[in-house]
Automatic annotation (TrEMBL):
Organism: Maribellus comscasis
Origin superkingdom: Bacteria
Region described as Disordered: 336-358
Protein name from the UniProt record: [FeFe] hydrogenase H-cluster radical SAM maturase HydG
Keyword Cell division included in the entry's annotation: no
Lineage: Bacteria, Pseudomonadati, Bacteroidota, Bacteroidia, Marinilabiliales
Domain Radical SAM core, residue spans: 76-307
């Protein structure tokens, strides 16, 4: 099944839909925005209408609607995590990536389990509780066992400040049996990006290795979900092809997963091409995405799939990241390194990293900035640990009940960070935000928040509901 063409990505339908809605009248745009406020998602034609917006007034209405939907569902929470690159070895030839097999300009490195443990210790001592484990698509002599061993190592590290509470994974596509083994290690989300859904472009930027097989990659989430992994993440590398096409193709992928498994992706990532060592294409994107179009992408995705988390990485500058919080972003990485060993060595833009960073700030500075804007940094992992994933999560999210858990848990995990890790200025800013946020809550959410925060103040860590 998984070597046959993925007919759910229908390129002709995408082009026809874009053509038929490229010059939508303002009244039609407002009709779609009104539909979006119902928070039941949008269809392909609706999304096509929004991609055609260029008028400043209508852009403003799009952005305001995205903010309204984001605040209704997520409130002022922002989940934080750190990527952990364990290897930059790769057998693929992706022309936009520094890890590609023939690139001689980087030093190859696959971390030993001991080195991985030291990296994890650094992250824990910074305050991180969620780690996204990333590896190039080739492994040392142990093969896939290297991945399984690395997950176990990450979970095994304990310090006086605690441990990693959830490991998410971004690695090469697996067979169904391998996905079952991955699930057995207790991962959270399995994340994989198609990079581009446009088949001809995919072929021109993936010149060798197993990744050249478009169908093997695009069917990977089917295999993962058949193996029992119900939290999956997707994404596009914007800049490789027309962003309008990519958004609609991603929507076709989402609809396919919802149809087959009853639930779509848990997260969507929105990386833009950034310079990478040894890649001319990465510095000169074939289809560059302007800042205004990038903000538009985030806003459209928030309205199209309102209950799906949108991830913003440190590829983007601090300024751009701030601007997208109000447009739909609900998860961010912070203090990131994209080269294996980068945390222990304290390297930022190491040429052996996968791409250049736009936001170099350490975790505490990011948290202080986020809190000063009124957003609550969250390190919560409760849903994973209580089984609120996949369809169970959506059953709580769609009627709005998930906020009764997420808002209190965000505050308690933030309070834990402030007590154990934060700098004095961050402590002051954070405590003021916690008090203000609780004062604005009511009902059971407020009762839970007050109870959990008091437990943390009394010396308890890792409390959640």
């Amino acid at each position: 099944m998984y070597n046959v063409p993925a007919n759910f990505i229908n390129e002709q339908k995408i082009w026809d839909t874009l053509k038929n809605h490229q010059k939508a009248e303002n009244a039609q745009v407002r009709e779609v925005l009104s539909k979006a406020r119902e928070m039941k998602g949008l269809n392909l034609a609706d999304v096509a209408v929004l991609t055609g917006i260029s008028d400043p007034e209508m852009l403003g209405e799009l952005f305001n609607t995205a903010n309204e939907v984001k605040e209704t569902i997520y409130g002022k929470r922002l989940v934080l995590f750190a990527p952990l690159y364990i290897s930059n070895m790769c057998s693929n030839e992706c022309v936009y990536c520094a890890f590609r097999a023939t690139n001689k300009d980087i030093v190859r490195n696959a971390l030993s389990q001991e080195h991985i443990a030291r990296e994890v210790e650094v992250l824990i001592n910074q305050g991180h509780k969620r780690i996204l484990m990333v590896a190039g698509e080739s492994y040392p002599n142990q093969g896939f066992q290297y991945i399984l061993d690395s997950i176990r190592t990450i979970y095994s590290v304990k310090t006086q400040h605690g441990e990693t509470r959830r490991v998410n994974v971004n690695i090469a596509p697996l067979s169904t049996e391998e996905f079952k083994l991955l699930k057995s290690e207790g991962i959270g989300t399995y994340q994989i990006f198609q990079e581009t859904y446009h088949r001809e472009t995919y072929k021109t930027v993936h010149l060798g290795g197993k990744k050249r097989d478009y169908n093997w990659r695009v069917w990977s989430l089917h295999r993962a979900m058949e193996a029992g992994i119900d939290d999956v993440g997707i994404g596009v590398l914007f800049g490789l092809f027309d962003y309008r096409f990519e958004i609609l193709a991603m929507m076709q992928h989402i609809f396919e997963l919802e149809d087959k498994f009853g639930v779509g992706p848990h997260t969507i990532s929105v990386p833009r091409l950034e310079p990478a060592t040894g890649s001319d294409l990465a510095s000169h994107p074939p289809f560059p995405v302007s800042d205004i179009d990038f903000r538009k992408i985030v806003a459209i995705l928030r309205l199209a799939v309102p209950y799906t988390g949108i991830i913003m990485s440190t590829r983007e500058t601090a300024k751009m990241r701030r601007e997208t919080f109000a447009l739909g972003v609900s998860q961010i990485s912070a203090g990131s390194r994209t080269n294996p060993g980068g945390y222990e060595e304290e390297t930022e833009d190491d040429p052996s990293g996968q791409f250049s960073l736009g936001d170099h700030r350490p975790l505490d500075e990011v948290i202080r900035d986020v809190a000063s804007m009124g957003y609550v940094p969250s390190f919560c992992t409760a849903c994973y640990r209580l089984g609120r994933t996949g369809r169970d999560f959506m059953d709580l999210a769609k009627p709005g009940d998930i906020k009764l858990h997420c808002a209190p848990n965000a505050l308690s995990s933030f309070k834990e960070y402030l007590q154990n890790y934060a700098q004095p200025e961050t402590v002051k800013t954070g405590n003021e935000l916690i008090q203000k946020t609780i004062a604005e809550m009511d009902g059971i959410a407020r009762q839970r928040a007050e109870k959990l925060v008091k437990r943390v103040e009394a010396g308890r860590d890792d409390v959640y509901c």
